[in-house]
Fold Response regulator.
Amino acid sequence: MSLGQQLAPHLPFLRRYGRALTGSQSHGDKYVRATLEAIVAAPEEFPRDVDPRLGLYRTFQAIWGSTNDDQQADPGDVDDQEAVARARLARMTPLSRQALLLTAMEGFTVEDTAYLINVSPSEVESLVADALSEIENQTRARVLIIEDEPIIAMDIETIVRDLGHEVTGVAVTRDEAVALAMDDRPGLVLADIQLADDSSGIDAVKDILGEFQVPVIFITAFPERLLTGERPEPTFLITKPFQRSTVKAAISQALFFDQSTAPVS
């Protein structure tokens, strides 16, 4: 199997990581493209002593680390999410966020994450703890849950409340979700794709976003329906069955880029 064939299944998830790391689909995709260009230009330098996915993320991290720290974007190119991210980044080390995303969202072990960001495993654990603490201190939101499985909905609601957020309601259909959102505007939406009456959580989210902007996290057993390569793709996507730590990380990261919880300069 060629290197390209080995890497292809992992590219949608690397793009997800790039989007979450930068807060921008276009900006994240630029780093992914640069990663692929670097591999094509010098395939002999690709890490062959590790799993292909680990080597792919290692290459991405090398490019990110070599350009991001000192990069100054043109103010005209900075959107609202990036402006919020910059305000938060002033209060947090980039390594902490990378450690959090790589472990909790991308599912890498502490040891693999240590390899990817070039620190010790104990440092990774400390960085993750620091990131969660800092983001949770900065962000508080009112959350709408769109989920038709009662046990899963209760689990998500517990996670949300444990993080210090308020739940505005739990919807099980598209119409109910839209009605709840219009009646009590949330600051974050957690949505399943397939709902109780065979309606679509995707359609519910589109209806809500047609009325006002709000960060959205999809939690679904069918991630391939959203990771299609078409625009726009969701920045935050969690696959069922999920780990509680993954949901916590996604909530923290989604609110990290949200204007309504932006830190005051």
Remarks:
- The first helix runs from residue 3 to 7.
- The beta strands are 142-146, 166-171, 188-191, 216-220, 236-239.
- DSSP finds twelve helices and five strands in the chain.
- Residues 69 and 94 are 8 Å apart (CA to CA).
